[in-house]
């Protein structure tokens, strides 16, 4: 059972595009392609059984911050995540202004 947010600093290889991602304890998605992986129930706990890849479907601007909405391609779980400063949001931002 999840107890709350756990800051876990770990680097990982993106399973979608292959980029090497340097974690900062809050990183949960690839900064290059923005895909994530469904591994947490509560951020950092690694308790999710699914393990599916999570597609970045929408990027929104909320309260001055960019939020990426990820959808698990395996189970359909939807999770909003704050964008990181080094995220490559270009294509998503172009779509926002169309």
The secondary-structure element order is EEEEEEH
What number of domains?
A: 1
Based on CA atoms alone, the radius of gyration comes out at 13 Å
The structure class reads mainly beta
Query: In percent, how much strand structure appears in the residues?
Result: 25-35%
Intertermini distance? 43 Å
Widest sheet, order of strands: 3-4-5-6
How would you sum up the major sheet? 4 strands, antiparallel
- Given as residue ranges, the uncertain stretches (5+ residues, pLDDT < 50) are none
Number of helices: 1
How many strand segments?
6
Helix content class: under 10%
* Overall pLDDT: 88
What is the chains' assembly state? Answer: single chain
C-alpha geometry: globular
What is the topological layout?
Blueprint: E1 12-13, E2 20-21, E3 36-37, E4 53-62, E5 65-72, E6 78-82, H1 90-96
Antiparallel strand pairs: 1-2, 3-4, 4-5, 5-6
């Amino acid at each position: 059972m999840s107890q709350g947010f756990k800051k876990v600093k770990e680097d990982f290889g993106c399973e979608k595009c292959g980029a090497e991602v340097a974690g900062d304890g809050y990183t949960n998605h690839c900064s290059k392609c923005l895909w994530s992986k469904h591994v947490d129930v509560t951020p950092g706990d690694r308790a999710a059984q699914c393990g599916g890849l999570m597609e970045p479907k929408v990027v929104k601007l909320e309260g001055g911050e960019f939020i990426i909405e990820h959808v698990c391609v395996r189970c359909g779980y939807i999770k909003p995540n704050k964008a990181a400063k080094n995220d490559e949001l270009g294509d998503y931002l172009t779509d926002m202004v169309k």
